[in-house]
Amino acid sequence: MNWNFFKTKKKEEVKKGPVKEWVDAIVFAVVAATLIRWAFMEAFTIPTPSMENSLLVGDFLFVSKINYGPRTPKTPLQFPLTHAKIWGTNIPSYTDAIQLPQFRFPGFGDVERNDVVVFNYPPEFQHPTDLKTHYIKRCVAIGGDTLEVRDSQVYVNGEKGKNPEDMQFAYILVTDVTINDRVFKKNGVWDYTRSAKNDYYEIHARPQDAEKFENLDFIREVIRAKHPEGYVMPGIFPNAQRFEWNKDFFGPLIIPEEGMTIELTEDNVAMYGTTIRNYEGIENIDLKETELLIDGQKATSYTFKQDYYFMMGDNRDNSADSRFWGFVPGDHVVGEASFIWMSIDPNESFFSKIRWSRLFNGID
Fold first, then answer.
1. How many Å apart are CA 268 and CA 287, to the nearest integer?
2. Which residue, 109, 226, 275, 332, is the most exposed by fewest CB within 10 angstroms?
3. How far apart are the first and last CA of the chain?
4. Which of 110, 123, 104, 113 is nearest to 328 (CA)?
């Protein structure tokens, strides 16, 4: 009897060629990186000085997605590991032919006051929500809070808000002397410009660093640069013509929260109308100067569908933030800044570019 008849023949193993092995490895790496980037952690860089001195231009951060919970993709048809454009080009990396409802998975917590938050820039309407430009600011007020800025100091619910340790303001250094860059760096100032007439410098510095310039012989005067109460600053949120606010005297303003109902008075239409129109997902809405029409009918009240946040930069006088463009909707929140993994000084030479003291620092 031929016992081999009963034996199961083993399938011959097909050996992968080097090209297929490389393709498999690349596909696996892209899928793994995409999942990690979406659900857990993503790397960002600081391109502007709006958060100095807390975060510097050239800081590279890891931002946690799981702290607040990752969002499901709204725009699924996108080239992997890109944002709105293909790297180094102006070519869109996505098509908005398919737009999905967006949900957020549970996270470790919610956005809290004083968190440093990465979010999609709300007024950028040329891209879908999840592909708008990334901004990073500090959350100074959450939904339900009443925010006010008095003489540059933030107040939340009538109490003085917590000031970041490295918060900066604008100062005028009155001098006819050309100040060497090393003098600014030695005194902790990275953000400065000289006037056209060469008779003063404007710097953005911590109060304790600005005081150092008062002791220099070639500085005639150090002046805190700020607007007086009642000065109407063009472009201030929500309506510079109706509310006499500026970046140093702002509010009081109630931050919307999910389930909060407001009466649509003329002031409230001016204060919240653009937020309702732009971020609440209402299709048939018409905002007029003193009234809001939904489905062709004048609305007398409105209940918000999501939480909102008020964000400000730590470099308070050099930050385009919620004082200028309004609230950050909850569905625009990306994650919480966790730590600095690399920091490169763009103004230094090759061997001095890395700011070694900032590597792996946590972000407060």
1. 12
2. 109
3. 80
4. 123
Instruction: Give the CB-side neighbour count of residue 165, counting CA atoms within 13 A.
Output: 4
According to DSSP, residue 4 is labeled: G
pLDDT per residue over 84-126, tens digit each? 899 889 899 999 999 999 999 999 999 999 999 999 999 999 9
Tokens 């060497």 correspond to what residue?
Answer: 180
CA quadruple 216, 220, 225, 229: dihedral sign: positive
pTM above 0.85, yes or no: yes
Is 61:46 a contact under the CB 8 Å cutoff?
yes
Round to whole Å and give the CA distance between 59 and 347. Answer: 13
Q: Cα separations (Å) of 21 from 24, 26, 30, 43, 216?
A: 5, 9, 14, 28, 66
Q: What is the pLDDT of residue 270?
A: 95
Residue 119 C-alpha from the chain's centroid? 5
Other CB atoms within 10 Å distance of the CB of residue 297: 9
Residue count (the chain): 364
Check residue 286 and give its pLDDT. 96
- Round to whole Å and give the CA distance between 179 and 205: 16
User: Which tokens go with 165?
Assistant: 């340790």
Quick one: 272 exposed, middle or buried, by C-beta within 10 A (0-12, 13-18, 19+)? buried
